[in-house]
Amino acid sequence: MKTIEVQHWNAEYKGAESKLIKTEEWEDSEESFIKFYELNNSLRYCNGCHYLFTDKKVNERYREFYKKH
User: Fold this and answer.
1) Residue 10: C-alpha distances to residues 1, 47, 58 (Å)
2) Mean pLDDT estimate for the chain
3) pTM surpassing 0.85?
């Protein structure tokens, strides 16, 4: 099973600098792209809180997937 690395960043309080909270390995699949979108979408009003793909190629694949859906 191929995996992708995802980082979770969080800011402790409003205006604070984002800090890396944890890094996870997810399965490299469309379901992971959907999960990534849903998690980031749930944090859209939390300044400094977000998820990131560590690999630029995975991020490019995600953007293409997002455009299609």
Assistant:
1) 29, 8, 21
2) 93
3) yes
